[in-house]
Structure formats: C-alpha cells, structure tokens
Design brief:
Number of strands: 0
Distance between the termini: 34 Å
Helix content: 55-70%
Oligomer: single chain
Shape: elongated
Order of helices and strands: HHHHH
Strand content: under 5%
Radius of gyration: 17 Å
Number of helices: 5
Structural class: mainly alpha
C-alpha cells in the first residue's frame, strides 16, 4: 500500500492533501473532535477564552473550520472515481474509543 503523500507533495497538490485527510477521518468523526475541542476550551476556567471577545473569536473559528472541512469532503467526493479509489481507504487514524455495550 502506498504511503500517504509527503508534506511537500501536499503543498504542490492540495487535492492530495484533501484525499489523504478524507481517507484518514470520517466526516462525522472530525465534527465530533472539533466539538470536543470547543467544549474543552470553553469549559476550562482561567483560560484564554474567559473573555467574551475571545469566546466569540473561537466560535467564529469553529464555524469556519467546520465549513472548510465540509468543503474538503465535497471536493473529495467530486473527484473522479479513479482518484478517490486509487489506494484502499485507510482505517481512521484517530478513531475515538467507544464504550463497549
């Protein structure tokens, strides 16, 4: 199995970076991780985000990153099928552990 593109290759071909990202993480997992980051940042006391202006900036960043990630998945899905299936889809690297039933 080919290794993921190097950082240099990703800078030359942003579509490769998008493909690698989308193959490494499921969209819903990325959304969950971002939400967890946001909740953690806002729920800590004595943090950078105690100020209302800083909290507002963090929410704006969260919203924009969410839109950017959705756009990345849209671009990935619109790529020709041979580009999206050239290598087998990797298992998500950072899959969140789930409680066993």
């Amino acid at each position: 199995m080919p290794s993921p593109a190097t950082e240099i290759e990703k800078r030359k071909d942003p579509y490769q970076a998008i493909r690698d990202f989308c193959r490494s993480y499921h969209h819903h997992e990325v959304q969950e991780m971002l939400w967890d980051w946001l909740v953690t940042a806002l729920s800590r006391s004595n943090s950078l985000y105690d100020d209302g202006k800083e909290r507002g900036s963090l929410f704006l960043l969260y919203e924009n990153i969410t839109l950017l990630i959705a756009a990345a998945y849209t671009v990935h899905l619109k790529q020709p099928a041979e580009q999206n299936t050239a290598t087998p889809k990797a298992q998500p690297k950072n899959k969140k552990p789930r409680a066993k039933p």
